[in-house]
Amino acid sequence: MYLNTATLLVVFYLNSIVSPVFTIRNVTLTIEPGTAVARGTNVTVRCNAVISSSGGEALSREYTIYKDSMKVYTKTSSTAEDLLYPLPDVRVSNTGKYKCEINIEGKQQASEVKKLTVTGLSKPVLHTPNVVVSEQGEVTATCRAPGETGSIYFYFYEDSNVILENQASSNLLETRFHLSRPGIHKIHCTYSVFVMPEVLNSEKSNTVTVSVQELNIAPVMKIFPQSKIYEGDHLTITCSINTSLQSSESVHLYLSQGTQLLSTAATKVNHSLVALVTDPGEFECRAEIGNVAKVSTEKISVTELFSAPTLTMSPAEVFQREYMTLTCKSESYAAERLNRRELTYTLEPPENLLVSRSAGVFTGKALPYDFNYTCVARARGIVKRSETLTVRPKVSVSTPKISVVGRAVLGQPFKILCQSDTGSLPINYTLLKDNAQLSTTSVKQPFEQALFTVTINESDEINKYVCAAKNNHRGHLLSKKINATVIVPLSRASLTVIPTLTEISEGDHLYLICGIKGTPPITFKWYRLGNRQPLLTNTSNINTMDYQVHRLSKEHSGTYYCEAINHANTVVRSEMVTIEVHLALWKKALIGGFCLLVVSVLVVVLVLYFKSKRGKREAAAELSVKPSSPKSDDSLTVNLTHNTEVYKAATGRLDRAADSVWSERPPEAASDEVSSVVSSEPDVEYTEVVHPQPVDPARGEHTHNLVLLLFFTLQMLNDYFCHSISNHLAQCPPCVPNLLTKTLLLCFPHIPF
């Protein structure tokens, strides 16, 4: 017995501490009979959960139903049966999105969302307990939406106009309201159910007819005098009520003119005032009892005693400190009630400085600034003011100034500006030349300028222009004569070279003077033909300018020209000048002196040479005399040859074959020589033997050394000359270095140099 009990307790304990293993496989929500139903249908929301577990014990399941994310139903079940959420006799308020969620021991799973749509609203019902009310009474009305639930708004209408609207927490709304006027009124109601995000509207309810009875109450208003009312008359107005109504509510009376409340009282209102044309002519007497108001209105017509004055000025335009007249006048007045002399006029403000000359006429000088005037007319306590007249005295034009816009270029159009520092617009400007009008322009707007376009052909023509300005009845004001520099376009460009072209030598200082005719400042540019860039650019305020080259050399030879431009923007170019740089004068003199020296030395050498040659020939020659012929025409031939031993010994040139300097004479020469030795004796043949004298070898050697010494001396002079020239030139003149050598070789071809 005890053993079985203990066994059962152990089994129960083990079952309580060991939880079964489970999983939620699926949760499904269905709406029956469908997701779209008509109002009044019984709908069931079914939630089915498929769960797998390891034990046979039932699991505790917690079901929750949501509508539009809000919890609407919860139930806990330990069975596997589906959860059913009934919606009997559904209404449109049941429309929404439904979802089912299951929770087992903290493990949750939800179904998909399903939407239920319920269509159809019930017809509203309107009820009023009383269908006849007094004008000040209230109507009690009840509007009901049978069977509807949810958030409901009710609307009450008179015909198509909304009288009242309100929200109710149930399907019934009772309210009170006033009807605005007596008579028959037809009333109905509707309602709207809010099913987010939609609003569903019902049809119209039944129509109820309500009769409103008018109260027996009438306001009475009287105005004195009742005949023709003139401006300034005193008016008396009464406002009272005529009624037989016995009511606990008090009556209030209100008297008003236009929007201005004049007076108020309980039973009767009395009010007095002065009639004015400017005041509204409609008066209202209003009686109020509760929420009911009765109104009585009266209109009056007020005849104007005199019209509002008008203020005018003459002349229409006035200049500063000139006399003007202001006239103040009322154009009309009631002659049957008012004498013209009763009207008085004054000007405001009092410090206007104008004097009254007669009724409404004021004169004086215009102020130097703008001033506002107002005319005030008075008669029988009535005061009227004119519109404000602003007098803006004009400023007389000042003496104009005349000037050139930009630059005045001879022969080209340019503009002349005529302008006054002060003066009221419009201002008429006239351009004159030699007192003759050329053109007139009117300046009407600020910042507008009087510009005239002219062209002149002579420089002094610019001084003939003047300007006239006028803006009033006075005469023109003349400006001074225009004072402006006339720019003469450049012309006649010339390039002068100093020194003259034939005298330009190396080492000279060259001046290229560019001269031009025109108006400075002038920009000069010098160019060398073949170069794009100018050699020099300079601006001068005179018409000539030079470009200088110091220490001329052969490299400065070339073709030069200059260009010039001034403010007329016309470029002129000179003729091209070709410059050739000659040798320096001292170089020419040096070369000439050297050549003279060379010639002098050569002459001396030649003289010495020929003398030496003659001596040697006479000493070494062998004279041969042949027998003379018995005839007088036989010739005697003398042969002198260089092939003798004597000549070779004298010259020391035994290794060189020399040509004969003497050839056989012509017959004429031979006969002359023979005739000198033939006597008148009979022909006898003689033979003369001449023995040659020994020649001194030192004499030939001396001549040779003298020639060599002369050569070396000239060579030294040549080197000195070339060295001197090379200090000024890049190299020695090509005619100099070999001049000595060539000269000596020409004269002494048999001497090796």
From TrEMBL:
One of its GO terms (cellular component) is external side of plasma membrane. Residues 20-117, 219-301, 400-483, 489-578 form the Ig-like domain. Residues 1-23 form the signal peptide. The chain crosses the membrane at residues 589-610. One of its GO terms (molecular function) is transmembrane signaling receptor activity. Pfam families: Ig_2 (PF13895), Ig_C17orf99 (PF17736). Coiled coil: none annotated. One of its GO terms (biological process) is cell-cell adhesion via plasma-membrane adhesion molecules. Keywords: Disulfide bond, Glycoprotein, Membrane, Signal, Transmembrane, Transmembrane helix. PANTHER family: IMMUNOGLOBULIN FC RECEPTOR (PTHR11481), PLATELET ENDOTHELIAL CELL ADHESION MOLECULE-LIKE ISOFORM X1 (PTHR11481:SF125). This is Ig-like domain-containing protein. It comes from Monopterus albus. The lineage of its organism: Eukaryota, Metazoa, Chordata, Craniata, Vertebrata.
